[in-house]
Amino acid sequence: MTRPLEGKVALVTGGGRGIGAAVVRRLAAHGADVAFTFQQDRQRAAEVAGAVTAAGRRVLAVQADSADPAAVAGAVDRAAAELGRLDILVNNAGAFLLGALQDLSLAEFEQTVAVNVRAPFVASQAAVRHMSAGGSIINVGSNAAERVVFAGFSLYSMSKTALIGLTKSLGRELGPRAITVNLVHPGATDTDLNPADGPNAATVTGFTALGHYAAPADVAGAVAFLAGPDARYITGATVNVDGGFTI
């Protein structure tokens, strides 16, 4: 198998499950050594780490709360120190809080913004201190930033929309350093939080041109492409991996 990321080091936030875990596995399969953060589930984190080791790559699992900016920056610095460098940052960790506008609390607002907006900013700020030419930052957003078909998404959609501005601005700022910054918008993806056989799955699928949920590996494939050499002239872009939900 071609290993286009051989010799690279990546950090994936929220890499202990779901899309993040699939990204960790795919980057390792493409030859990268991978650090990832997780919040609580040590058993799942160990399973993900084991998959990286089985692929013949080095791995570092860091328990860190993405709502804590010091923990986020510390995870970045630790990954660079222990794995020797940092070439790829995937801002994947997210908070998914839904509710009617009048029912959302200020604490829920602050939690969502802390994880979905502040953490990618802080991680990117820390990462670029370690990155050289050829580095890449990939933000993981949501197709809810572009199309909302259900009520209750105001807070979540707002937070994910912020990543569009962050991605474009950092793409412009870091372009002279040959560091690319791109955004992946997943659609409905079969994870524990949003299973393909869940109560709203049939309705969601009805809005999707391809008529089914994505697998986490589908999103991971797009992330790995944007992290690799074939995407070296792509920056500031948004890639929708949503089966045509936003058509």
UniProtKB/TrEMBL annotation:
InterPro entries hit by this protein: NAD(P)-bd_dom_sf (IPR036291), Sc_DH/Rdtase_CS (IPR020904), SDR_fam (IPR002347)
Top-rank taxon, per record: Bacteria
TM segment ranges: none
Gene Ontology molecular function: oxidoreductase activity
Keyword tags: Oxidoreductase
Entry-linked Gene3D superfamilies: NAD(P)-binding Rossmann-like Domain
Family, per entry: Belongs to the short-chain dehydrogenases/reductases (SDR) family.
Record-given protein name: SDR family oxidoreductase
